Amino acid sequence: QVQLVQSGGGLVQAGGSLRLSCAASGRTFSWYAMGWFRQAPGKEREFVAGISWSGGNTYYADSVKGRFTISRDNAKLTVALQMNSLKPEDTAVYYCAADSDYYSDYPTPGARWGSWGQGTQVTVSS
Predict the structure, then answer these.
(1) What are the E-state strand segments in 40-77?
(2) CB neighbours of 71 closer than 8 A, spacing ≥ 6?
(3) How many CA atoms lie less than 13 Å away from 88 in the CB half-sphere?
(4) Are 49 and 33 in contact (CB under 8 A)?
(5) For residue range 76-96, what is the model confidence (pLDDT) as tens digits?
């Protein structure tokens, strides 16, 4: 298991950009696929993006394809979510997560997401 600490987020106007970061503890960070999820008020948590342990595979929810980019730096033990062309419907609390399985090349919603960051608010005004 890894421990995850998030940073970034905040308030932005529609069409703007924000960058979320997630820092992990532990040398085993590079073993795990990583993902970002979000939860809007009154809604269930939903998958946003995932990246495989090596960074070679990425996976995005249809709602964010072409606007969001997930990346990782295994040397710095970080994963980031660059969010462009933000829309009011992107407003939510965002969470980073680590897969429970080692060396997964399938960072999909169905992966066994086991470790979670503390969450960070993203608010997009219209």
Answers:
(1) 46-51, 58-60, 68-73
(2) 51, 55, 79, 80, 82
(3) 2
(4) no
(5) 999 999 999 999 999 999 999
